[in-house]
């Protein structure tokens, strides 16, 4: 019996040591990789200076073209992340502050993402490699149910979020296999799609006060960042466009641009513009809030 217990203890010791070593290896790889996604780019950079940054979901990632601003003399970057919600946008902004970014203007998408205070599990996973190194990330996630396991059990966070930061992603990060996430200053264009546009149905959406949006407003005020919150275009077939009227009732300061571009030729899907639509919309946003610093 004694030998059996010694065997079990040795097995557990080997397992724990393996988990520690794997944790150290994965973390070391992610700490030196800044070209796989926008969150790794932010963490592994510092002292960036931007006239304008864009934050939000795919409706930023696919809708704002930094080149339009850059040609007018502005230094800009699109930090929109597909599938993200306002909670992830808030953490990205806090991480930028931690990395000593200087930001003059933040253009934030606040439309379909304001109907929930929930998070995106897929995007949350991309912050996990930096949990031990970043006080900002730890503070942001300290109240989630699995926080202690993620922080204190070696390698647990990589197992828990294996689909996004497991072996495959670690390997691609190690060999610096680039994605398109950082191309075009963060703008990822969508192609036009033939055929009739399928309407987007907003009848189940209802805007409410959003804790992450309130947090973003507070951060901008504290760090003297000019916050420009906007809605972004939907195609003309959208069902229940009255949703956007309710946004204005909850947050009157949000600028409405859901009708700025509506023709089907500018859309890839009813809720996402194609490249031509994105360029047209970005020009509208620029003209609404900015003036050229230099001639194109």
Summarize the structure in short.
43% of the residues lie in helices and 9% in strands. It has 296 residues and is of the alpha/beta class. Helix 5 (86-98) packs parallel to helix 12 (211-222).
Structure, explained:
By secondary structure, this protein is α/β, with parallel strands linked by helices. The chain has a four-stranded parallel β-sheet with strand order 2-1-3-4. Strand 5 and strand 6 (272-273) form a beta hairpin. The chain has helices spanning 2-31, 38-43, 58-61, 66-70, 86-98, 121-124, 135-141, 147-152, 156-160, 162-165, 167-174, 211-222, 243-250, 275-289, and strands at 49-55, 76-78, 102-109, 226-230, 267-269, 272-273. The model has no long low-confidence stretch (mean pLDDT 94). The longest helix is centred in the N-terminal third of the chain and has 30 residues, at 2-31.
* Topology, number of strands: 6
Overall geometry comes to: elongated
Mean pLDDT: 94
Compute the separation of the termini in Å: 81 Å
Helicity, as a percent range: 40-55%
**Largest sheet: spatial strand order:** 2-1-3-4
Helix-strand pattern, N to C? HHEHHEHEHHHHHHHEHEEH
Largest sheet: 4 strands, parallel
Structural class computed from helices and strand pairing: alpha/beta
Strand content: 5-15%
Radius of gyration over all CA atoms, rounded = 21 Å
> What are the segments in which pLDDT stays under 50 over at least 5 consecutive residues?
none
Tally of contiguous helical segments: 14
